[in-house]
Write a structure and sequence with these properties.
Elements lengths: L1 H21 L17 E3 L4 E2 L2 E2 L3 E4 L7 E3 L4 E8 L6 E6 L4 E8 L1 E2 L1 H14 L4 E4 L6 E2 L4 E4 L10 E8 L5 E2 L15 E9 L10 E3 L2 E3 L2 E3 L3 E3 L3 E9 L12 E6 L2 E7 L2 E2 L13 H7 L3 E3 L20 E2 L5 E9 L5 E10 L19 E5 L2 E5 L12 E4 L10 E4 L10 E5 L7 H5 L1 E6 L4 E5 L1 E3 L2 E6 L4 E6 L5 E4 L11 E7 L5 E8 L2 E2 L3 E3 L2 E5 L10 E10 L4 E9 L1
Parallel strand pairs: 18-27, 19-27
Antiparallel strand pairs: 1-4, 2-3, 4-13, 5-12, 6-7, 6-10, 6-11, 7-8, 8-13, 9-12, 13-14, 14-23, 15-16, 15-20, 17-18, 20-24, 20-25, 21-22, 21-26, 26-27, 28-29, 29-32, 30-31, 31-37, 32-36, 33-34, 33-37, 35-36, 38-39, 39-43, 40-41, 40-44, 42-43, 44-45
């Protein structure tokens, strides 16, 4: 009995050493960046549109302007001010080789806020990306650095928090640093899927398998397949203790007790985050809003530090025997869920015809129609795509080309491709100067100014959908929230922007002849009154100049009294 206990002790010690070797990140070095308990609205690696979530979303009790504090000593090394993305963000570099990032902020601490404001007025530019030297803005652990908010690409008040390797700029999973976030809930599995890997995972697509739960074990009925080459995928979420749907940290796939695939989300670089689209069933995600993660490697998926090399997860069934499948899901606290099932090949149905694939991973490809050319590079696709491109008439009076159907918006592309369109009539130089290419991918549209190469208009895109060439002669505009000449006693001025095609790509406001700092909030422009326009300063003239994607410029004048 003593020998057995000693053996168990040694095994536990070895496991602990292995765990520490795998996770050599400093524990308890960083503190909670809020002064309220850490509660997660999203975790590192959660599935997002076209990217992994790269940090923690910390709940702020649906409030804005909570104090945000430095997670450790260091210095402010960078700030960003941008319309989407992080909104207002602070980067703090620490002496231990890591950088923390705090995003969607409303306001920086006073000295930093004043510096940024002075820089904006000096540059006459609201958007900023400023780097600092170590001695400019040193901070202590727990020092207030900002107020939380809802700026940039945020859909509600929260704090986005990241930890990065300062040298490589890789984002590291913050939950590996020992934060005190209670979690006793194992991942929840709600679906199992298999794919015929003789073909692309996009066609014929996923085959759903019902999952049932007994106690802490998930299972399904025998999976009978008609292909000797298959792979699996899982639909699951991690709830932690807080109710939000969080992403899965670690998954393993075993067949007959042998590991054949594993992924773990420890670190990701922003240059690689779009590879998320090669880790999920993209058509299901875009069309059905379902987050299904592959338990296999697609041939064009090249994300580093994600899955174990050489374990592809593609299963070759060499016989018609019953094989045991086990899927193990874990969170960073070690809470574990298991799904067990069995799979058997049924060879009775079976002729494989040519799939006619037109775009293959790791190969470049040019596809043409009568008036269109689409150039894909070798990194364009994650799996083979039977690409269908064709033209059809377009009824838009501003269109100067057919509509070009580029396969389907439910198929992802990784890198930007070049789209060339030949107009269906001769265009003057002035018309060419106002030409844009519009790509409609269902949930939204992307408009770029056309670049001309002879008679061909060119643009670059990273989504598929339906494209056309337009002449945009519409002026962008803004509308004021006050009547012209009225007294304004509010705390701010609001201008609502409108661009019929494309976007307002340039905005400038001059108050009585001097540049005035308007922040851009989605499609609106907001000026918060300060010393540049104090109460009692009388009548003012606001000149606003806007330009849209096509280059059309509009100058508008507004008056008010203060």
């Amino acid at each position: 009995m003593k020998t057995f206990s000693k053996l168990i002790f040694i095994i536990c010690l070895i496991n602990n050493i292995i765990t520490q070797a795998q996770n050599n990140y400093p524990q308890n070095y960083f503190r909670n960046p809020l002064n309220i308990p850490m509660q997660l609205a999203a975790n590192f690696g959660a599935v997002r549109t076209n990217h992994f979530h790269m940090g923690l979303d910390l709940r702020t009790n649906s409030q804005e302007n909570l104090p945000v504090v430095a997670a450790a000593e260091g210095y402010v090394s960078r700030i960003k001010v941008e319309r989407y993305g992080f909104g207002n963000a602070v980067y703090i570099t620490h002496p231990n080789g890591y950088t923390t990032v705090y995003a969607h902020l409303n306001k920086y601490f006073n000295k930093l806020d004043e510096y940024v404001k002075e820089r904006q007025y000096k540059d006459e530019k609201w958007e900023q990306d400023i780097t600092f030297q170590p001695g400019q803005f040193p901070v202590e652990k727990g020092q207030q650095i900002a107020l939380s908010g809802n700026t940039g690409g945020s859909a509600g008040p929260h704090l986005h928090f990241e930890i990065r390797d300062t040298k490589t700029e890789e984002c590291i999973n913050p939950l590996l640093f020992g934060f005190a976030i209670p979690d006793t809930v194992a991942p929840i599995i709600s679906g199992l899927y298999w794919y015929d890997r003789r073909f692309s995972t996009y066609e014929p697509g996923a085959n759903g398998i019902a999952v049932k739960k007994t106690g802490n074990i998930y299972s399904s009925n025998l999976v009978q397949v008609n292909s000797p080459e298959i792979s699996f995928a899982i639909k699951a979420v991690d709830k932690a203790n807080q109710g939000f749907n969080l992403g899965i940290y670690n998954a393993e796939l075993l067949m007959d007790n042998k590991l054949i695939y594993s992924f773990k989300i420890d670190k990701i670089h922003y240059d690689e985050t779009r590879y998320l689209n090669g880790c999920i069933d993209y058509p299901k995600f875009i069309r059905d809003k379902m987050g299904i993660q592959h338990l296999s490697v697609l041939p064009g998926m090249k994300l580093q530090n994600y899955s174990i090399p050489k374990l592809t997860g593609v299963i070759s069934l060499q016989d018609e025997e019953v094989h045991t499948i086990e899927i193990i899901l874990k969170d960073t606290k070690g809470n574990t869920s298991r799904l067990t099932t069995k799979v058997r090949l049924n060879k009775s149905s079976d002729k494989v015809s040519s799939t006619g694939k037109t775009i293959i991973p790791n190969e470049g490809k040019t596809i043409s129609t009568e008036n269109t050319e689409i150039n894909f590079n070798k990194n364009a696709v994650y799996d083979a795509v039977n690409f269908n491109a064709y033209e059809k008439p377009d009824a838009d009076p501003n269109a100067v080309s057919n509509s070009i159907v580029l396969n389907s918006p439910y198929i992802p592309v990784h890198d930007e491709y070049t789209l060339k369109i030949k107009p269906n009539k001769k265009l003057s130089g002035a018309e060419k100067d106002k030409a844009v290419i519009l790509l409609d991918y269902g949930s939204d549209k992307n408009v770029v100014k056309a670049k001309w190469n002879g008679d061909w208009a060119e643009g670059q895109f990273n989504r598929l959908g339906t494209a056309k060439l337009l002449i945009d002669s519409n002026l962008p505009s803004v509308s004021s929230s006050w009547s012209d000449g009225a007294w304004v006693n509010n705390s701010s001025l609001l201008l609502k922007g409108t661009a019929k095609t494309g976007d307002i790509v340039s905005f400038r406001a001059d108050l009585d002849g001097k540049w005035l700092r308007f922040a851009r909030v989605k499609d609106n422009f907001v000026y918060t009154f300060d010393e540049k326009c104090p109460k009692g300063s009388g009548s003012h003239t606001l000149k606003v100049t806007t330009m849209n994607t096509a280059g059309n410029t509009n100058i508008q004048t507004f008056t008010f009294q203060r």
